Write the structure tokens for this entry.
Amino acid sequence: EEAEAEAAVVDGQLLHDTVIAPMVSMLLEPASASDAADRPPHFRLALMAALGAIGRESLYAHACCRGAVVLALSAHLGRDELSQEYGCAMRELRSLAAQCGREGYIAEGTTEALCRALSPQLAAEWAWWLVERPELLEPTAHKLLDTSVNEMLELALPHALPSITLLGGLAQRGVHRRGER
């Protein structure tokens, strides 16, 4: 109850920006990056487990926090299913879904229910994966949503389209303004 009271006071976006986003950035940083070369071999697995544990905490129950956790862990589903990273990602995603089910955030504690509940936070990234990381679409659709890539993108479309339209409009506006100079 105390953590729930804290969560009501603390802004979810602030928690995302100060705690979740830096962890996600380190997790998704390529292994060839200068900082990453100095890290122990299991650093990424420990970071995935820590991110999953934070996502299960009621203080971080905001959709923006949990959406970022789901996306960061999902980015490892393109790996070999027998790899440690894939196994850790699926374990943490299932644990997060189960916790959300126990909290009543979702009716059923499954990754499918969690992804559907968080689809406004996940949709734009899923649409971006279509261009930048298509290898993640199939495992995400099949393993997390138990559906096809087309059905996953149909779920994402109503949430992603406004963001895509806005970004396209802003980019177009910027092009026109630069051309006017």
Q: What stands out?
A: The mean pLDDT is 84. Residues 2-180 form one domain. Residues 30 and 130 are 20 Å apart (CA to CA).
